Amino acid sequence: MGSVVDELERILAPGQVDAGEVALRRYAVDQAPVIDFQLPLAVVFPESVADVQAVVRACAGTGVAIVARGAGTGVSGGAHATKNCIVLSLERMDRILALNPDDETAVVEPGVVNAVLNDAAAAHGLMYAPDPASFRTSTIGGNVATNAGGLRCAKYGVTRDSVLAVDVVLADGSLIHTGHQTFKGVAGYDLTGLFVGSEGTLGIVVGVTVRLKYLPRDVHTVAAFYPDFRQAAAGVLAVGRARVQPAIMELLDGGTLAQLDDIHGSDLTARGRSLLLIQTDGFGAAAEAQVVRDVLLAGGAAVTTEASEEAERLVELRRHSRGVEVDDEYRVGEDVAVPRSRLVDYVAALDAMASDHGVHLKVVAHAGDGNLHPTFWIDRTGGSVDAVALKRLHRVLDESITAALAMGGTITGEHGVGQYKLRWLGQEQPEPVREIQRRIKELFDPEGILNPGKAI
Amino acid sequence: MGSVVDELERILAPGQVDAGEVALRRYAVDQAPVIDFQLPLAVVFPESVADVQAVVRACAGTGVAIVARGAGTGVSGGAHATKNCIVLSLERMDRILALNPDDETAVVEPGVVNAVLNDAAAAHGLMYAPDPASFRTSTIGGNVATNAGGLRCAKYGVTRDSVLAVDVVLADGSLIHTGHQTFKGVAGYDLTGLFVGSEGTLGIVVGVTVRLKYLPRDVHTVAAFYPDFRQAAAGVLAVGRARVQPAIMELLDGGTLAQLDDIHGSDLTARGRSLLLIQTDGFGAAAEAQVVRDVLLAGGAAVTTEASEEAERLVELRRHSRGVEVDDEYRVGEDVAVPRSRLVDYVAALDAMASDHGVHLKVVAHAGDGNLHPTFWIDRTGGSVDAVALKRLHRVLDESITAALAMGGTITGEHGVGQYKLRWLGQEQPEPVREIQRRIKELFDPEGILNPGKAI
Fold first, then answer.
1. What is the C-alpha to C-alpha distance for residues B248 and B254, in angstroms, rounded to an integer?
2. Beta carbons of A243 and B217 less than 8 Å apart
3. CA torsion B126→B130→B135→B141, rounded to 10°?
């Protein structure tokens, strides 16, 4: 298999192929738990579409797989190296090729960092709406691969809703363009939608045309502390019933508040056992925030007064509520979504499970779209693997998935299936639906060299 | 081929299969120009998912094609009968199966009329956002088949953006469910997106789960008359530069105003040669409308004062600006979209073409998303076909498409390719992209019985 690496070194420029131990280790995994650690044969850094095409052609027919990678911030293992693969890091393809203020669109290479695109757009009063927690480091290409969500989705949509067109290198090295430069376009099948969220298993996205939205003129943030999670979740429904569409509606449980206090020295726990953070934006932001405050007060919350600086600081804290932790075998973050009306029931079920099995739990939720991130963990017992505790952890994880599905939910709201969630996919999608996806995969990638063992 | 009809009459209830001349003629075409008139063998009216499955199974293996049909309001010929087909009218499957106000979702059969769903949602302060001009008669199933747009798309998105899940009867009669009941969900490939807009060529959509949005609390409408179209189009960009996102932004040219005056006895033409209609909605509607007025006044418009009743009446007129006309061989409405910054250039190009070839032209545009509906027509010469005039008409049509594509546009923003626009699809999509779609079609429908000769 060394021959493919030799070939890549021959066709690419010096420094574009790294087979050194440091690089191999660094690029072997993303931020998800690892269930089958593999080192890649090499890490390859294309700098152009032609480079990507050359790499794909070099691998085709050799059995060497290609794992495309953005910033490696994924949390489902979509960018974990697999057996006999190269990792194709698109980080050097980081140019904003066009930014058209009147068209409200941009064309970018896949390695452009989300925040960099947003900074460039902000100069024109525009924004790229999808804002995963990783937006300061994650790339548009990675966001496209996972159809990333974020905090603002309930109002502004997920990545799919902002992607108009993609350039894709297919498994045979050919390049296609799908979609349209216009906001609307219905010519032919929605191939763009098929590539978005396909986690690099159908092709390598080498260019993305996105729609930009308007930077809101005004932003108001409301922080509401509650004595328990149940009342906070009821607040989410109350805001919905008032028919106010917040840009952000985040729900944090007591465990999350305690952790934030630990890290940042804040006093959140002293103020409540649950926190609902709501941000309204646009021309109606002030009026919407007032309705939100009234509704939440009526529901028993302690609500911040009209000055929203503190609440905004809390939103920033929330964005970092993953902290510096990376999931591992002792600590797993989930990404289920349930219909909004089931938020309360679902969190009650999680609490019961965690308590039954003696597993720690904290929960944050993008409550506006019913998307929950429970994190389960067990204590480390001095470095040695505690097989019994691990079994408890896995039992809770499985039960949390089963419960979400039973409530009409999904196993992944925005993180993607990757490698780690594959074990649960069959519970959500029956065999005929999975078989269709396998056949689509086969159609695009008959040799199975594009990120095998992921997504479907 | 009579045997399939006999079989259908045997397996369905009396009144569900109509092979009478009146029905065959009535269901042979939708509202698009007809280029290859065919009568179906029968019109079939399923009343349940099981009925649809039975019909598909009866046709499978016989070579009889199935043309699924909603209300027949399509304007691209997606529901035109083809040789040796039955028309499957889903109009009797018209139940709203669930409407969940707290989840802000609804589950409907495909025959539910768009306006009926909106009325039901309005009782809860909700709306189904996509609003094609045909919304009072067209069905959700038909809207899904064409990925229908409408007036509110620039702010609220197209049909795809409101569809969370679909139930689909496949070409072998089996039933699958794709998507999720939650707002977000990224498990597996986006099969839902693949079915939306596929015009009945990949499967028969028999159930749709949609996301509902909030009925706006406040609506303000501004009407701005301009001395010419160019200035009006500049107004569209000026509103964009003010970073106001209207719910509706419609642009009407002089020909359209004259026609509305003819039909409704209004005096629009006396007031300007072009009209820009802008509706803002939500909590910030009043403030947004004020910015819009200021910006348009500065651009030379005659703007209605703050009372917006008259402007709202104009929006209603606009919704009916197709009038009672149905396209035919002498009169063809287009549906191109161009990047917003090219609106002015594109309309200037249309004017020049129409004038060069002696063809009549009027234009309305969903200007917020650069989607134009030019209508070209030639005078009828006392019933006889004027081959020379027809040739002129077709030359203009072809040129209008070529010009839109040259500006980075698409041949269809929201109507679909159907049968009528197939001739231009190759100009927008190169052969490799079309071949992928053919192979996807083959994967879903190996016998080619689902609406053959349409969409791709």
1. 19
2. yes
3. -100
Q: d(Cα B122, Cα B106) in Å, to the nearest integer?
A: 12
B151 lies in a domain?
yes
Number of domain units in chain B: 3
Listed in sequence order, the DSSP H helices in A328-430 are 343-357, 387-406, 422-428
**Same domain assignment for residues A225 and A255:** yes
* B322 compared with A287, residue with greater pLDDT: A287
Say yes or no for a CB contact (<8 Å) between A243 and B338. Answer: no
Judge if B338 and B401 occupy the same domain.
yes
Residues A10, A29, single domain; the answer is yes
Amino acid in the structure at residue A379:
D
Q: Considering only the beta carbons, identify the residue of A415, A443, A455 that sits closest to B439.
A: A443
Q: Is the pLDDT of residue A381 over 80?
A: no
* pLDDT tens-digit readout, B191-213: 999 999 999 999 999 999 999 99
Shared-domain flag, residues B378 and B351: yes
CB contact under 8 A, A413 and B182: yes
pLDDT digits 0-9 by tens, B149-160: 999 998 999 999
Amino acid symbol at A124: H
B168-190 pLDDT, tens per residue? 999 999 999 999 999 999 999 99
- CATH number for the domain that contains residue A75: 3.30.43.10
CA distance B92 to chain A (A): 27
Q: What is the ipTM of this complex?
A: 0.96
Please check whether residues B369 and B285 belong to one and the same domain.
no
pLDDT tens by residue, A46-74: 999 999 999 999 999 999 999 999 999 99
Give me the half-sphere count of Cα atoms (radius 13 Å) on the Cβ side of residue A91: 14
Q: Where residue B387 falls among pLDDT bands split at 50, 70, 90?
A: confident
DSSP string, B360-415: EEEEEEEGGGTEEEEEEE---BTTB--HHHHHHHHHHHHHHHHHHHHTT-BS-SSS
> What digits encode the pLDDT tens for the residues B401-419?
999 999 999 999 999 999 9
Domain that residue A143 falls in: 96-214
Residue in A104, A161, A217 closest to B340 by CB: A104
**Residue B425 covered by a domain:** no
CATH of residue A386 = 3.30.70.2740
CATH classification at residue A119: 3.30.465.10
Contact between chains at A188 and B413 (C-beta distance less than 8 A): no
